[in-house]
Every structure is written in C-alpha cells, then in structure tokens.
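Researcher: Batch entry, complex prediction.
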Amino acid sequence: MDNQEIIGKGTWIDKLAFELIEREKNLGRKLENIRVESGLGASGVPHIGSLGDAVRAYGVKLALENFGYKSELIAYSDDLDGLRKIPEGFPESLEKHLAKPVSLIPDPFGCHESYGMHMSSLLLEGLDKTGIKYQFRRAIDTYKQGLLKEQIHTILQNSTKIGNKISELVGQEKYQKFLPYFPVCKNCDRLYTAESFEYIENEKKVRYKCQDTEIGSKRITGCGYEGEADIAKDLGKLAWKVEFAARWSAFDIRFEAYGKDIMDSVKVNDWVADEILGHPHPHHVKYEMFLDKGGKKISKSLGNVVTAQKWLEFGTPKSILLLLYKRITGARELGFEDIPSLINEYNELEDVYFGKVKVDNQAKLTKMRGLYEYVNLLEPPKQISTHVNYSLLVELCKIFKDNRIELVTKKLLDYGVIKISEPEITKLIEIAGNFADEFEQQEKSKINLDQISRNALNELSEALSSDEELEDIQNTIYQIAKSHNIQPKEFFRVLYQIILGAPRGPKIGPFISDIGRKKVAELIAKQV
RNA sequence: GGGUCUAUGGCGCAGCCAGGUAGCGCACCGGACUUUUAAUCCGGUUGUCGAGGGUCCGAAUCCCUCUAGACCCGCCA
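Model: Structure tokens for the complex:
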C-alpha cells in the first residue's frame, strides 16, 4: 500500500472522478466542461435514494473541480413520464389521469403548476437544504424545444436494429414490434397507450394508434385515436431504453450514476449511445438501492418512505451527506434510527479533521479527512464545533418535554458538555426532540398502587408542594419510603413511572428540582 | 432464466471498493460513586471474519469456486 498513490482526497468519489478523466483522455474528448447528470423521478414521492443519485453526482462534480476541471450538475426531471400508479396517500381522483404525463396532471395539493412539479420540488427542496447546487432541466421543456430531435430521428431510423439489440441484450421483445417512441395521444393526452408503429422519415413523424395497454396489473383504456405525431413539435417521448442515450448525446453528459434496478436499461442505452448516436456513453457507477429495515425495497406505495424532508426533522443536513458520501457500494437497510450514529460519526470525523483525535494510518487519515471535506461540500469549517452526543440529547429530550430547550440546555451546562448556549446547539436540541417524540416507545406499564404507596406518595406530594425548602429531595424520598416500610427500590420505580412513564430515569432528586417540585407534586397528586 | 448485494463475538453492525496486529454499540462480568433504585464513570471477557482454493513477505480486505439469504430485472418507466 505504500507505493500506492493516494488519489485526490482518498475517497471513492475521487477514484471515480479520476477514472472518468482517464477514460475521457483515452477517448480524446474535450474536457472544458464536464457535465454530470442526475435524473429525478417525478412520478413518485422522492425518497432518500433519489436524493442520493443527485448528491453523489454532485460529489463527483466537486471531485472533478478539485482536480482542476470545470464541471456542472444537470438535474433532469423526468416529468414527461406517465403516471403509472397513484402513490399512497394521494387522492383517488388521480385515477382519471393515469398514463398521462405527470407535467400535464394538475397538482392534487394545488401548490404547484402540476403533479410532476410537485414531486420534483420535493426533491429539489431536499437538495437545496443539503446545499447541493444544480442546473434544473425538465423533460417537458426539453422535448417541447426539440432539443432531442436529432437523436430521436437517428434512433427511429435505426429502430429495427435497436429493437433486435434490446431483445438480444435484455430479452425484451416489445421494440421489435413497436418504435421506442411514445407520443402523447392528441385526443386523450395519454402516454403509453399510443403505440407507434411507423416512422415517416422525410416528415419526421411517427404514426400511432391509441389502444388499451397494461401498466402493472392495471388496464388502461386507449381511446382508439389514430394519427401522426411530429417528433420535433408534438409532445411525446422516447422509451427509457433509448432515452438516456439521446439525452447524453444532446447534453454531452460524461457521468451518470444509476441504481441497480435500471441496470438493463443502462446497458441498452450505453449501446445506443456508442453505436447509434456516436456519443461514447458517460462513465457510470452503479449503486445499491436503500432498503428499509425489513430488507424490503423502499417503495413509495408501501408507505415506508424515508424522505429528505422527514429526515431533516430528526437529523442534520450533514447526516444525510455523510450517509450518501461514506460509501456507495453495498445494500443498505436504512431507517431514521440511523440518524444518531451518523451524527456522532460526523463529530468523530471532525475530531480527526482538526487533529483532536490521532489516526496512525496515513491512508485512513487522508480518507477520513477527505470524507469530512465532502460532507462539507469541500468547504469545511475553519473551526471545530461544539460536540454534543446526539443520543444524550435524545435521552434528555425524552425526559424534558416542557420548556425543553431551556431545561436541556441547562442540563448540558450542568454536565459541562457545553460552556455557553449556541444557536447550533439549540437547533440540535430541536431535532433531537423531534426524534425523541417520534420514536419513544411507550412502555407505560400500569401503575398499581396499594394503600401504603398512596400514603407515602401523598406525604411526598405535600412535602414537595410546600414552600418550605427541602434540603435534599433525594434524601426526603428515601426517608418517606423507609417510614412507610416500602422498599426504596420499589418506591423509586413507582415515582419514575409517574413522572416519566418509564421504570427508570436519572437520579431523582436533582431531576425533580429540574422539572419543578410543584409540578411533580401535582403529577403525584393526580395519580393518588 | 439473467444480474447485484450480503455473510465478521450472544445480538446489531463497522472495517473490504487503495492488503499491514479484528473494532464499535448493546448485552455480560468486575470496580468506583451515590445513605441501598437508577444514571454515570473506569476496567474486563467474548471471534477458526460463511466454506474451499489462489495471489502475496503478509488477506476480513484482491481473484476463482461453492453454500445460504436478500433484492433487482425478465411489465413499464
């Protein structure tokens, strides 16, 4: 390993960017502006995996820039795709829009110009909040402006060859029969139902017929319309098996990551780009899908969606970036419960970066520092920040529900974890609080009180609510238990049940004075 | 049928993609502290890294074969 040279900042991102440049040099292409692309689905609720595609592409862009090249990220919304399924929690009224391009469907929530823009915006919001910069492009504009018309023309001219190749490469025979182009039916606005069967080369028009088709298990009825569509002027789109290739060629894309679910599609597109369009396909990296904790693929319809929005309620933007940049290979089961360890891991990286923690292995040190820099989008802070263990915050937030920020801050000061209250810490307390509220298991066992306990509790309640200063609450509790002949252990347990709803808790004396003696007195009185 | 990933102490996982003394959390054991709950702190135990072969001075890590599980594709996008 000693003779191994470290590339860039030592992460997989650098390695990838390095390979990309080597490849481009071999191809002899110009490198004045290296475009990387990320496709944004616009038909379903965007989850963290969709975000990952763009975030990682942006990482590659940063690595390229770090190597001294100019680069930009194109975020391309597939908003001419047809709606295939109504996502969980969306109104049934969408039924009548099935198979229509998502950018032609009204936003069911009324906040965006279309269904497609609603979905895209959710993803873009995630990107904005994590600090990812991009150039936004939409399929509908791309097609309307005829940006792909040359490529579409070439593809349709070669449709027989392509159809055969698709069959050979991935076993799909559909395109031996139909053209890989879906017009939007002039009569009913539907995509997919309009099957095109003939290309009139000199007019650049496809002839199609709108007929019944099956999407998933659903049958979509076509309207029977038969007509022609101008590939440069009328609305329509290429089939996915060839569309990437057209885009890569038209936009001169040099890098695009992809999830393993569209591996076949990429295989075909690479061939089309290379052999039909004469644009060597972009450099790729394949990533695994995120799975939920049960090992199921994250699916919008199952409602186990981990969205950026939801994540940011509980975690920092950096925790998302760390998740996505720390590695790319490997299937990963993902859930919100990973947030605490990611936040702590970020702090560890920061300690290493600022030399607070020593790492002996030089390659590892470089890699960790590099990862830290990428998580900060190559603009790392100048100074180390105050670290508070996230799990500790969550525990404290479970305990303090009222005046949370104030009380938790006070505790942190007591513990000596922080020296002064900072806005960043306050923000952390907020999200840790959200986390605590959302995921606290209610292990509220029933509190069965016998008469002896009641008497003891009454005495305690009175003692706490009196204005007299109690010298030592801890001691008082102990004394009361003893005088009523109750096992202290048992008495403490009952008190924790009443105050926290849990069988255990922090040392109870200081805890009661933190919450407020009178408040605890009331709580106890209510129980008795 | 095609493809990808995963397999590491009792449990959950990191380390693998750029080979260099196997690590973390939980659990467990011991100690400290607290007037005897709890919490906290300190210390400790736990492994033929799924099996087999290969490369190498050296393999959890790279290569090949196998086993088991998961997922994706074989509709469509």
